[in-house]
Amino acid sequence: MRWVVAELKTKVNDRSVTKFLQSVPEEQRRKGCFALVAMMEKAAGAPARMWGTSIVGFGTYRYRYASGRQAEWFLTGFSPRKKDLTLYILSGFDAYEDLVSRLGKHSRGKACLYVKRLEDLHLPTLKKLIQRSVQHLSETNR
Question: How far apart are CA 85 and CA 104, in angstroms?
Fold first, then answer.
């Protein structure tokens, strides 16, 4: 049997990050998004780029599936979803419980941090979390 591997739908593109973020309807969330751009650009050492239609990503790394297939993804990023602001901490949270416990009001998935407002988080702790995650992915995926 021959397997057909689906191509990723979410890819980096040349859409304007600024235009996308200016379209965020709520002013406070929009300001938070621009603050995240500055924070994540510094952590990743790379400019903001659109990934698909609604994710702002920073930097890239290559990862390998168990099947051996490889793909390129962003090191860190976020998306101003309707319900929550979703931050992508792609190394996961297991190694960062010390930081997560001091972060503030949030919920999380395996590699996603969900917040209503950026102001609900302790920003110095968030910066450290993003920096450590980016560093981990950069070191383990060379």
Answer: 14
CA distance 12 to 55: 9
Q: Is the pLDDT of residue 9 over 90?
A: no
Domain ranges of the chain: 13-140
pTM: 0.90
One-letter amino acid of 130: I
26 exposure class (CB count in 10 Å sphere: 0-12, 13-18, 19+):
exposed
List pLDDT tens digits, range 30-87.
Answer: 999 999 999 999 999 999 999 999 999 999 988 777 788 888 899 999 999 999 999 9
CA distances from 11 to 18, 59, 66 (A): 18, 13, 21
Q: CA angle at residue 97 from 51 to 115, to 5 degrees?
A: 45
Q: Are 92 and 76 in contact (CB under 8 A)?
A: no
Dist. CA 58–CA 119, nearest whole Å: 22
- Residue 107 has φ and ψ, to the nearest 5°, of -130, 170
pLDDT computed for residue 44 by the predictor:
96
What is the CATH code for 13-140?
A: 3.90.1150.200
